[in-house]
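hey team, just a heads up i'm posting the complex here instead of the shared drive bc the drive is being weird again. everything in one block, sequence lines first with there labels, then the predicted structure for the whole assembly after. its two chains so it's a bit long, scroll down
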Amino acid sequence: MSSATRFLEINEPLLMKKGGHLASYTLAYETWGELNSESSNAVLILSGLSPSAHAASNAEDPTPGWWEGMIGPGAPIDTDRFHVIALNSLGSCKGSTGPASKNPATGKPYRLDFPALCVEDIATSAHQLVRGLGIEQLCTLVGPSMGGMSSLSYLQQFPEGARHHLSISGSPNAAAFSIAIRSLQRELIVSDPTWNNGNYDDKNWPVKGMRMARKLGMLSYRSWQEWRTRFGRREQDYFPTELFGMNYEVESYLEAAARRFVRSFDPCSYLYLSRAMDWFDVADGYADLKAALAGIQLKSACVLGVETDILFPAYQQKEIADALLANGIETSFANLESLMGHDAFLVDYDHFNPHITAYFNSVWYEDSL
Amino acid sequence: MSSATRFLEINEPLLMKKGGHLASYTLAYETWGELNSESSNAVLILSGLSPSAHAASNAEDPTPGWWEGMIGPGAPIDTDRFHVIALNSLGSCKGSTGPASKNPATGKPYRLDFPALCVEDIATSAHQLVRGLGIEQLCTLVGPSMGGMSSLSYLQQFPEGARHHLSISGSPNAAAFSIAIRSLQRELIVSDPTWNNGNYDDKNWPVKGMRMARKLGMLSYRSWQEWRTRFGRREQDYFPTELFGMNYEVESYLEAAARRFVRSFDPCSYLYLSRAMDWFDVADGYADLKAALAGIQLKSACVLGVETDILFPAYQQKEIADALLANGIETSFANLESLMGHDAFLVDYDHFNPHITAYFNSVWYEDSL
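-- predicted structure starts here --
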């Protein structure tokens, strides 16, 4: 956990969409920049599946965050102008309450006793954070990836919750292909013999299952287009003797990325958040997406997608933009030609910075009118 | 095994590219249509990773084959005109010698004692079949998927081996993304506790590993575009009680497809063929692809790819077509707008038939001049 992480304890029950509840819970977050006297310049970032609240370095923790280049003085999300808040999602394992947290009823980790978690619950809890910080209305709600889903639910539940919205590689619902990928990732984890129906411990921990699930994740986060130029057919310096060893650079890249992830993320958290995304459909119970987003009181929205994204394909961002526009919200949409797939917003600053800088400039300008 | 399958025993050693050898081996194949008196109308089909030699129904076995709609009287590959031969690849487990075959030296299955297998070895053995059938030169060599790789090697090794060539969703070499997918599939198989370093038996068989590897295969064979319309977010009629059960249609489709595959394909064969594809680069040792294919004496070639293929992306077929053209071979290329990804040639007859019909008409016409 970053030393910059703060915690808000919420001691009222969270009634969850699928029927369970949490009697109390903790939300982990970090902030950058000053909240102005009217509390009107807050930017809340709802994250993807795995990030912590440490989105960028700050005085308390100078180590780079997961969106280091995006947040800071003079950065696209300019902390000289905005008070930025990044939240670790409910259900995660980076400080917010999730399946790895201690269940007050038993004194042991919840694991599979954690109630079924929906994206809607993540959004509800995020609103509790905003309230808890004394903020009436967000200036801008930012949601990349799963955070794009949580943002839509946030705005649906709290139609005046934000004046502006930046949606990045998000989705109004989970696509069949994405469900299939996540379903297989979960199967990999629960097929690990040490999974033991959630009763793993530090010694017997589903390392293999998590490693392979992460590799499959990486396959879905990037693109063949990127790896064509990045790795091609380059081989390693070493040639393992085993017949089916890994001697291509792309294989060792995946192995290294997966090893970094394993043990740093709780398997139950992974399963809960993964399934929450599958279940999400913001139009569930509505005639269509336009109807689902009707009533949202945004002044503006910016929706960004990436041409090579196979996990949250760009047509999904177009659907969001179209539905917001159809509801009379000033909305811009761009399908970026990045090669870096779903993860582009984390790594391809060249393609993202101009759009995000321009959007926050317009937000600043519109709010100052 | 189909009752229509024939076997050619080859009792001279196959010296393999990576140094091992097979003292003798068997090739399983099927045929349709008559070989003409000049033995000039033979069409050889080299297959992808998993198909048997039963590409289509015939008198001996009326059950549909894996390319049923493509081969037959009046079909795109018209058996009233052509003598069609389909070969089960060396290294497979559908009648041709592979890791599951009995090692004559030990009387037990080869398993990991099978020599390292390359696509080039598959091509060399295919040429032995053609020779064994008394055919001097093929009319047309057809290679879909891995068969596209084997075909290029065949033509490189035997530059006058065919007058015409149809390459479908093939590749001059394995792409980084494809290596990554196959590497993870292999890892899934060898991580199954019953894998036991290749010493599985019918009772202890890597069912889970193979099932999950096949699901990952399906993800790479199809596309999000197809599944968007085919499955969407439709749920099953049943709702499993487990928290992480499979209640979306796409999940049960994958489960059913994987179960059909498991136990019908040998895990060692899978590993050997999978790695053979990774290793393949027809330009290995040459200045470039044009140089690698120089000398090939084709009268014509047709190269087809599919826009949504992420495993053998269409740029790879374009590279093949460009290199053949650069060598003065009359070559047509089409990037089909099918939604069905790499597997489109197996299922999307609407997109493929017109091209394949037209190509074989031109082959027939050119050869009759």
